[in-house]
Automatic annotation (TrEMBL):
Organism lineage string: Bacteria, Bacillati, Bacillota, Bacilli, Bacillales
Record-given protein name: GNAT family N-acetyltransferase
MF annotations from Gene Ontology: acyltransferase activity, transferring groups other than amino-acyl groups
Organism of this sequence: Gracilibacillus oryzae
Claim: Cytoplasm is one of the keywords in the record: no
Keywords: Transferase
InterPro entries: Acyl_CoA_acyltransferase, GNAT_dom
Amino acid sequence: MSGPAAFIQKFIPYVDVKRNRKSHLGVVKKLSTNRKYPELEVKLVRSDEEIGMQYDLFHLTDEFTGSLPEKKADYIRMESERLKATNDRTAYVSIDNKMAASCATIREGIKSAIIIGVFTNPEYRGRGFGTEVLTGLFDMLLQEGKYPYLFYSNPVARKVYKKIGMTEICEWCVLEV
């Protein structure tokens, strides 16, 4: 069960809550920053090789431990099927044929998309490559008339999102019952 915290909190006395996770919801309606590295192409994942690069990127930290299949081939198959069956997309920037940063959409619809999987290779952190890929993806979405929505709990992510143009909507709550 998830939704705006002010609404979801009213259900707590009536359900057996196993876990209560709080985050925030934001939206970008207009970019408030320009790309720092316009010479870097923000690419969309189109091939199994690129999906494999993303799998390798996610395995550079423990952040995605437990949420990815153990076998790279399984991830490539699952992600390839997801991207073919939906309007979702994964954007990335690469440096020296290495994926430096990536982010993706889910539930991409006519007017909106939820942003997920924002990740920067630890080797490239602190240099704006995460902001670069987000700005590129947000620009694509906004040009198509779609608003990017973000769920976040990380204060560093919040700072980046606000710099790009995110407006905070509300505190968000996810109850595991």
